[in-house]
Each structure stands twice: as C-alpha cells, then as structure tokens.
Amino acid sequence: MPKITPQDLEVRPATPEDDPVVIPMLREALKKGDDPHYPGFLTWKHRDNAFGISPAWVALHDGRAVGYRTLMRWRFLNDEGKKVTAVRAVDTATHPDYQGLGIFRTLTLRGVAELTLTGDGIVFNTPNDQSRPGYLKMGWSVVRRLPVGVLPARPGSLPKMANSRVPATLWSEETRAGHAAPDALTDDAVVDALLQHAPAKGFRTDRTPAYLRWRTAFGPLRYRVLFVDEADPAQGAVIFRLRRRGGTVELAMVEQLVPDAVTGARLVARALKESGADYAIGLRTGPSAGLVPLPVPGAGPILTSRPLAQTPPPASAWRLTLGDVELF
Length: 328
Prior knowledge:
The chain contains ten helices and 15 strands. The chain has helices spanning about 20-30, 40-45, 105-115, 130-135, 155-160, 180-185, 190-195, 210-215, 260-275, 320-325; strands spanning about 10-15, 55-60, 65-75, 85-95, 120-125, 140-145, 150, 180, 205, 225, 235-245, 250-255, 280-285, 290-295, 300-305.
C-alpha cells in the first residue's frame, strides 16, 4: 500500500449511511468477529439511547472507513438536582492498516471541540490501561479508581473468585431468578414506585422511566428485576444480570432501588440464592447494600473525565453504580 498521510483522509461527522463501511471496520479493529448481536448492540447504545443519539465522527480513505469515534450521550443530576449533559467516550477504533496517523486523536479532539461549542457539559469514561495515556494527553484527568464490592454466595466461592481474574463475558447467562426487565418495567406505576428510591444526592445519573427502560432493554444482556414484593413495587427491587467470568458465574448488581440498606442486603442475598451465582459484584460509590470491599489491590475501573462547557465535579461527588459504567 502506498504511503498514506493524514492529509489523504476525509474526516467528517458520521451518519447512519456510513454503517456499511463503519461496522465491518469496527468488527475487525475491535475483534468482534461475526458476533450476531454486535450491530444491534451499537444501535441500542447509540440510536435508541434515552438521552439522545450519539454524535460520531469518521475518517475515510478512498471511501473506506479507517477510523471511527463516537461519544455516547448521558445525563447527570448534580447535588442540587440540576441536569448536566454529558457524553461518554466509547467505541473508538482505527483500522490496523492506518495506525500511526493520529486518527484517534484527530477524531476525539474534533468531537470535544464541536460538543463544547454546542454546550455539552462534560465527557467521562473508564478507559483501560492501554488507552488511558492517550486520553490524559488530550486533557482528560483521573477522577478516582471506583471501589468494587462483592458478596460470595458460599465459602467455596472465595477460591473460585481468586482464580477467575479474567474479563467477564459480554453477553449474559440465562436465569429464572426475578423477572425479565423489559416485562417487569412496562407499567409506569411500577417504574415510578421504584424510582422513588433512586439516589437523591451526589453527582448521579438522571434516572427517568425512559432511561431505566432503555438501559435494561437489550435482549442478549438479559437484565432481571427482583422485587421485595411483586404486589407492592414501592417496597423496592434490584436489577442484575449474570455473566461468566472464568470458572465462575458472577451476579452483576447494576441497580439497587430500595428504601434502606437492610432491604438491599436481603435482596442481594436472595438474588444469589435464586440465581445460583457464585458471588455478587457492584460498585461501592452508589447504593451497594450487602456488598463488602473487594480485598484485591488495584481492583475496580478507573474513572476519568474532561471538561467541555462545564467543570466536572470533584471525585467525592460522583455516585455511580455498576449500571453506569459496565458494558460501554
């Protein structure tokens, strides 16, 4: 292939019409192979999102997609209850043949500049060790490592947990514990009753009925809702899914919408018992009753953020659950 320079590339906002060239490039660059759920997963995240359609940018060479960057829309409430628009840096890729041309940086900084001009508040993400240095060079700052909490189902789960320090599978395991979230959250009265127990302080996701339904809607993720009392949803519920991690089945506790810590702890224990999972896991920066600190140095994702039109909150203000950071 002849030598390519950055000037040979066309960089512009991406549109749905670019999907036929973008999705194959993402599959190759991100090693998604022939996963049949992948196109639907992207649509769920970026087009069906309750917070809005994700802005995206593409780099093209002779009509071929060689780089892609999208920033998924999100919305927070601050401690005073005011809405803060945000985006999350996700799904970026450069084709292997076009590495070294600064495509990641070009697309990301263009997105940052355009969203700042349109008044979006902040950008945040939990980059891995390989991508974090690149973000820090572009103005991101480390907020903190998000503390992980766990609850083993039984004493024998502890050594299994210790021997399963590998990435969890993306798609969920089946379980009959609780109810399928899309079915359980259909009734407005049920959702409204649960959201009475959403966090009321701190820098937290703006949990609306539309958000909760969207967040738990994608079929292959198999989100489940376990109620305290199905006849009275105001008593609270937890939302979870099962995922395989090495030789264990992990119960990812993504939301605790409960009136108090005792209720939350009892529901986590029930979910473990009814699902047969080896342990429950969640974040301890949001509601996390029943979960104890994971005694493993360096465990937990590292949260980073960058200002757009607003200044991100201090580290102590963020109140995130696993539902805010997993998957994306």
